[in-house]
Specification:
Blueprint lengths: L17 H16 L5 H7 L4 H4 L1 H24 L1 H20 L4 H11 L3 H14 L2 H11 L1 H20 L2 H22 L11 H12 L2 H31 L4 H8 L1 H20 L1 H24 L5 H28 L5 H26 L7 H29 L1
Amino acid sequence: MTTLPNVRFLSRTTPPHIVTLVLLAGIGALNMSIFLPSLNAMTDYFDTTYAVMQISLSGYLAATAALQIFIGPISDKVGRRKVVLVAIGIFILATIGAMFAQSVEVFLAFRLLQASVATSLVLSRTIVRDMVPQDQAASMIGYVTMGMALVPMFGPMIGGVLQELFDWHATFAFLALAGIGVFALAYFDLGETVQDGGMGFGEQIKSYPALFASPRFWGYALCAAFASGAFFALLGGASFIASSVFNLSPFWSGVGLGAPAIGYAAGNFLSGRYSVQLGINKMALIGTIVTLVGMGASLGLSLAGFNHPLAFFGFCTFLGLGNGMSMPNATAGLLSVRPRLAGTASGLGGAIMVGGGAALSQFAGGLLTVESGTIPLQWLMFIVSALAMVSLLLVMQRTRQINA
């Protein structure tokens, strides 16, 4: 029996249409990846180093991590609609500012402000929980996060084409226009969905010790952080590798950057199909093993002297496949450690995950040179993938102790 609320498309008096939620999630994911094929060209344009330009990714992720903690409590108090519209408005202005920046410092400042669009990505899922009961939310969230899964496949390709036809400014013009379109859709379709104010930020802070004292919370959080960290490390170094090591065009750089998303979509399907049957711990463990084997094979081939873009980016599909299985289950485990504190655990776990990704993406960018080739990045992805598996094994050990 369905309990979906009455939804009228383009009405501000009813909850939003599913299409609106998909696009809200998609614009946040698009902003993270579409400019990556232009990163080397932007480094030359601003006459800086790749490591400095890399802050446009790592700094963005760090700002997103901080937002994860505050977005929920703020939207509980003032409403989802107001927060989403203000955040997208800031994003549009920041995107235009970045497009016209004449120095790397000004560009990076506007790039950090662009992180406001992560609000729409996070709240699109929160709005679903406002609209439907918990047992229906998982299915609806699956459709919403489709935007997050599909955009990384095509976003870098779009950015690569725009770079080849014009330059990096065109990518940010495209982002600004997309932002304006999503803002207009949200303005006319996103009715307020919050009912009762949730846990405030002060209350969240008071609940942190209960989570910090849980070894299982840390195990799940670190598993998710290390698993996603391998992907963020790839984002941090892949543009340099594609253009400077393999001499790929911006378009083919975008194709390579989309490879993990293909695996992630497959991993999500397998997770949805088998997680209930196998259990979240076993499914997450299988995912970490898949990633570790894929990254190990990639590293082994490079150490043996076989270094080809098809091999490098092809094995990155295994990174996406493993993460598609491990991430949803590690996240589900993280939320189940203290069910009463699920909202706090979600924000805190997300901050740990994305904050760790920011550090690893910046570290990856600083490791690489043309002489070093792909090997430093492959070692980094292999090591953090191993740490994800170890974190999950510690959770399973702790679970056995509790149940003994």
